[in-house]
Amino acid sequence: VYGLNRFLTKMYGWMSLAILASAATAYWLATANGGQLLQNLAASRGTMLVGLILWFVIPFIVSFQAMKRPTLSLGLLFFYSILSGFVFSTICLAYTGTTIFSAFVSASAIFISMSVYGLVTKKNLDKWGTQATAALFALIIAMVINIFLRSSMISFVFSIIAIVIFTVLTGYDTQKMKQMYNNYGDQVSTTGLAVFGALQLYLDFVNLFLQLLQIFGGNGNNRQ
């Protein structure tokens, strides 16, 4: 039990620090202090393209290298969280502070509730996780199609579906990390395992937050 608690503390600690790094970066860039930097980056298409490619690729690198190179993967996790802050700053400019705060508090409440459920429940969530993952891939395809349709109503429905999906994935990923530690904690690097788990939970929380932000903010049309 002591070993599991240490593992969970490390995993949730790194996940929380990653979220804090993203929030701090986004806040700084969205204010006058970083506004000019954000404008300069937006004007450079090459820089933006490289940044978006890294933003897409880094989670895969961290996932595949966490067990082999835990220190490098941890560094990449925090680099990714800062990079995400750049992306989020452009999104958050479309919303009021009240909307952002409401979305963050709601995402935190959902995440904490489902994460605790994933830790304490004796019910196997593998089936739920598999179904939620399949639904996520289908939703991503549908979202891409809606880019061309530009339907705000469809976007609203997709956001609700996404919240359900990531709510389920939060519980599933939490239980999965607990099981992985119990089954392989003495055979693999617990640091690497914690980095891997921190990334999964970070992605769950961030996606919950972004979808709630769209719902509370009316798809970004509430800042005057």
- Cα distance spanning the termini: 52 Å
Q: Measured on Cα atoms, how large is the radius of gyration?
A: 18 Å
Count of DSSP strands? 0
Average pLDDT score: 88
Condensed summary:
The protein is mainly alpha-helical. It contains eight helices and no strands. It is globular.
What's the topology here?
Elements: H1 2-30, H2 32-43, H3 45-65, H4 70-92, H5 97-120, H6 126-149, H7 152-184, H8 190-216
What does this structure look like?
The chain is mostly helical. Helix content is 86%, strand content 0%. It has 8 helices and no strands. It has helices at residues 2-30, 32-43, 45-65, 70-92, 97-120, 126-149, 152-184, 190-216. α4 (70-92) packs parallel to α8 (190-216), α6 (126-149) packs antiparallel against α7 (152-184) and α7 (152-184) packs antiparallel against α8. The N and C termini lie far apart (52 Å). The model has no long low-confidence stretch (mean pLDDT 88).
Which labels suit this protein?
mainly alpha
